[in-house]
Amino acid sequence: MTLSLSLSLSLSLCVCVCVCVCVWQVLLVFAKDDAQSNSFCWACERAGFRCNVARTPEAALESFQEKNHDLIIMDHRHSRYFDAEALCRYVYSTCVCVSVVTQRYVENSNMMSCYNELIQLHHGEIRAQIKLRACNAVFTALEQSQEAIEISSEDQIIQYVNPAYECIMGYQRGELLKENTEVPKSEQNKPDLLDNISSCLRRGKEWQGVYYAKKKNGDSVQQNVKMTPVVGQGGWSGACEGCFHMILCLAGSSQRRHSSMARIHSMTIEAPITKVINIINAAQESSPMPVAEALDRVLEILRTTELYSPQLGTKEEDPHTNDLVGGLMTDGLRRLSGNEYILATKQLHHIPGHLTTPLSLNDIPPCIAQTMENEDSWDFDIFNLESATMKRPLTYLGLKIFSRFGVCEFLSCPEATLRSWLQIIEANYHSSNSYHNSTHAADVLHATAYFLCKERVKQSLDPIDEVAALIAATVHDVDHPGRTNSFLCNAGSELAILYNDTAVLESHHAALAFQITTRDDKCNIFKNMERNEYRTLRQAVIDMVLATEMTKHFEHVNKFVNSINKPLAALEENGSFVCVCAGKCILTAPENRILVKRMLIKCADISNPCRPLELCIEWAGRISEEYFAQTDEEKQQGLPVVMPVFDRNTCSIPKSQISFIDYFITDMFDAWDAFADLPNLMQHLDNNFKYWKSLDEKKLHSLRPPPE
């Protein structure tokens, strides 16, 4: 970088200033020593500058090329010794990245005058030139930065944007740098926010916070932003070249990266569990030793991730319960062999040819219609419908229930589209599965519809929640392979790999349901929905399907009890009008509505023990057969046997049902009954438990006692 300084003075001492490095080095070119050269030598020494002296132009050039001095002072008083101007021109020609300027200095051999001259050069325009010299490095850094950076004038005219900004905001290179391009403004920024930013910057203060930037395609993107005011020429007045520039630093599409770990350590991150741990730690300091030791145990428990899962005893105490937990609440064991269970990649099922004409409620055969006359009753026999429909109960029951709840009207969906959708969903259930087939889906849909008619559930949920619940129940096990998540993870199945061994089947059911629905307009029941409403409905369906995964069973149940059951019970004990209003607030709070929907579909999904005895027995036989088949295949494939008690030669079905009811069902349905008032279900549950208990006491392993 080159710096040129000039003073119009009568005497001819030539000062050539070359700015190139931060540590100042001075070269004195004097043909002979005199008072002036000695004064400059003294001034350099006092200022802490490095000083070299050259007597001839050749020596000066050699010294300059070796050390690249910052300041060259040449004696131009005696031209007979050498041509100072020619030497300056040569310095110009040899300095590629250095700025050279000449400045005339009046002869003055006073040492303090020479010292002051050097200090003025160093602290005056030289320092400004040093900053300018850094500009290339600064802009190179900006160009390479992954943070999006924009520099604009006070009137919002863009002066500079870096490539990261252009990329994030969707612009081509240089597209925003055209003359008088204004900063794109998003309508999502409230006027008072913009006024606050402007006021802050005018006072010379930085502003940092959440800001909506507008992309080229018109979308608004939320960013963590830091804006810095920079004084330019003219200070803060409205003078010529713009009184200040504003540097806008965006964090990119992800969370803003902090440049210093110190900022992370200074953050206060206090989740509720953190507050509890801090309170216990504080209490320990003033507690007796036994109490402090007990609190240590409490802290150990609180720091685990399984806060809602009961701890079981040893396997010898209850192998049935342990095996059920292992099979339903884990994502598999480590594989013990190199065998892999690969679900064959297959096309989605299509509707069989003899079903391609959609059915209408008016076209349902009388025998099927008669079977569904009491579908609004809890004691409805789904197996009669399965027989009457030749194992296609989901389509017929779905038509009736969806019509009763006005689903087509809510979705603005033709009945023909709904019929096609029900048929294609049912076609993607595996009729070869003894349990997880379309009859199970129809049973869960029936239970869901029954629960939705309960008064407290109706008070809590909106129409979109009801529609989401019915859709989720219909699709919640679509394309189920008849094997548990643990089996798929142990076998290294394609689905387990796809979903990282986490909620494998539930993720697949939800994803496939939307894939089937949206791939063809003929069965796309969401086609006419407004975008935001569709996204809300889609999220609700996905959340409910994922809630059927058993690994978080106790978390869902405990959250429901603590967030809804207990607060409502406390209000009911009071009984005042204010408490009635508070109860409505509890029921309709968005976070509680989510808990209600999760609990609803969970109870519908595993409600078999609460059905009338004959239905309960049939379901118990079907799920046992599916588990037997899984154990058989695990042994054949050399895989870990997830549920050893489900060996068809040794299994006690009554014991497995007792364990399932004790461990999963009783507490959950107690909580759901307290909320939705379901005395008939609880009576069935009690009767069924006694039935299984009586078989177990007789040491029977079968579904039914032997005939007398």
Automatic annotation (TrEMBL):
Keyword annotations of the record: cAMP, Hydrolase, Metal-binding, Signal
InterPro entries: HD/PDEase_dom, PAS, PAS-like_dom_sf, PAS_fold, PDE8-like_REC_N, PDEase, PDEase_catalytic_dom, PDEase_catalytic_dom_sf
Cofactor(s) the record lists: a divalent metal cation
Domain of life: Eukaryota
Entry-linked SUPFAM superfamilies: HD-domain/PDEase-like, PYP-like sensor domain (PAS domain)
Chain residues that bind Zn(2+) 2: 477
Enzyme Commission identifier(s): 3.1.4.-
GO molecular function: 3',5'-cyclic-AMP phosphodiesterase activity; metal ion binding
Annotated binding of AMP, by residue: 436-440, 477, 605, 657
Cofactor note as given: Binds 2 divalent metal cations per subunit. Site 1 may preferentially bind zinc ions, while site 2 has a preference for magnesium and/or manganese ions.
Pathway in which this enzyme or protein is active: Purine metabolism; 3',5'-cyclic AMP degradation; AMP from 3',5'-cyclic AMP: step 1/1
Binding site for Zn(2+) 1: 440, 476-477, 605
All residue ranges annotated as the PDEase domain in the record: 360-699
GO biological process: regulation of DNA-templated transcription; signal transduction
Positions annotated as active site in the UniProt record: 436 (proton donor)
Signal peptide: 1-31
Family according to the record: Belongs to the cyclic nucleotide phosphodiesterase family. PDE8 subfamily.
Protein name: Phosphodiesterase
Organism: Cyprinus carpio carpio
